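Work package 3, deliverable 3.1, input record:
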Amino acid sequence: DVKVTQSSRYLVKRTGEKVFLECVQDMDHENMFWYRQDPGLGLRLIYFSYDVKMKEKGDIPEGYSVSREKKERFSLILESASTNQTSMYLCASTLRDGMNTEAFFGQGTRLTVV
Amino acid sequence: QKEVEQNSGPLSVPEGAIASLNCTYSDRVSQSFFWYRQYSGKSPELIMSIYSNGDKEDGRFTAQLNKASQYVSLLIRDSQPSDSATYLCAVGDYNQGGKLIFGQGTELSVKP
């Protein structure tokens, strides 16, 4: 059974804290993505990675950074958490097989910044 | 213009009716198109993918793609209350490293 696992289901952090969200996939997928989901806004792409140590900015990268040191792991970092980063964060992975293929999602991390 | 745009809804249909969900995209070179379903409190799950112009049918679901009009749609026949969910359109561009962009989603409610 394919699996994308996010390290936490719920997180509460204080303003100004450095926050790490971890995502691990066991499918040997090349592509990994971080999205945030807010009511009425759908899934907005923060960053994605198509290979180890490679990263590309998505539509809303400000205030975030990422790290991909191993193929199976993609980390999202909030350098200094702010209340407007309170959201649901979803990690996903896909194969690169000539075309985009099915994206598998983690269970999501609901982050609250107080 | 947003890269991927959907009618935000909510869309309400009676049980047994056809639900029609629409999506437009701005990047002409996009190659891959997907419909995901997301139940409240759950992660999105793939229900249809389509790569070529025309229709693709899978059970009660039909995806339609028109690349010239930059338009993709999803028809759900014989709608059931269990189809009530948010439907997300996604567009992929392999030439941008496999970038995958989602629309804002359309909430569908099927009334018994």
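Chain A touches chain B through 30 residues (CB under 8 Å).
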